[in-house]
Amino acid sequence: MKSYKKELWFTTKKRREFVNITKEVQSAIDESDIKEGLVLVNAMHITASVFINDDEFGLLSDFENFLEKLAPEKPYSQYAHNGYEDNADAHIKRQIMGREVVCAVTEGKLDFGPWERIFYGEFDGLRKKRVLIKIIGE
Fold first, then answer.
1. Which of 42, 46, 56, 104 is 20 to 30 A removed from 116 (C-alpha atoms)?
2. What share of the chain is helix, strand, coil (3-state, %, to 5)?
3. pLDDT tens digits, 46-76
């Protein structure tokens, strides 16, 4: 069994963004030369997420609206966490959207349904953050 590790780094231009990283994950699989196995894609920060869904603008907008209704950014004073920082909402949004995904690799490709894509979800951006890609297999 082989393993391969790659890191992606992001500095988003907005506090909240969704970034389609499917091509970057597939590139890591290509670099790994692993044909059959699993790939883990993991947000390495507690205010960021990795998830799978459709890359459709309306849906991504719906996610943003849903998350903001559920855990609004402001007023900052509504959260006990926000004594030192102002990002309690980002922690909650990350918890809802998830930390990581694990995907099958078959014949050297992500083994996806027709509309599935991997996203990096940023909820407290404007600073450098990391995503880990770990591939294991043959």
1. 46
2. 30, 35, 35
3. 999 999 999 999 999 999 999 999 999 999 9
The CATH number that domain 2-137 falls under is 2.60.120.460
With tokens 């970057």, the residue in question is 24
| Closest C-alpha among 30, 25, 22, 33 to residue 7 | 25
Name residues whose C-beta falls within 8 Å of residue 133's C-beta, 6 or more positions apart in sequence. 5, 6, 7, 8, 24, 25, 28, 39, 40, 41, 42
Contacts of 36 (CB under 8 A, 6+ apart): 105, 106, 107, 137, 138
**Whole-model pTM above 0.85?**
yes
Q: Domain extents for the chain? A: 2-137
Q: Retrieve residue 103's tokens.
A: 């995907």
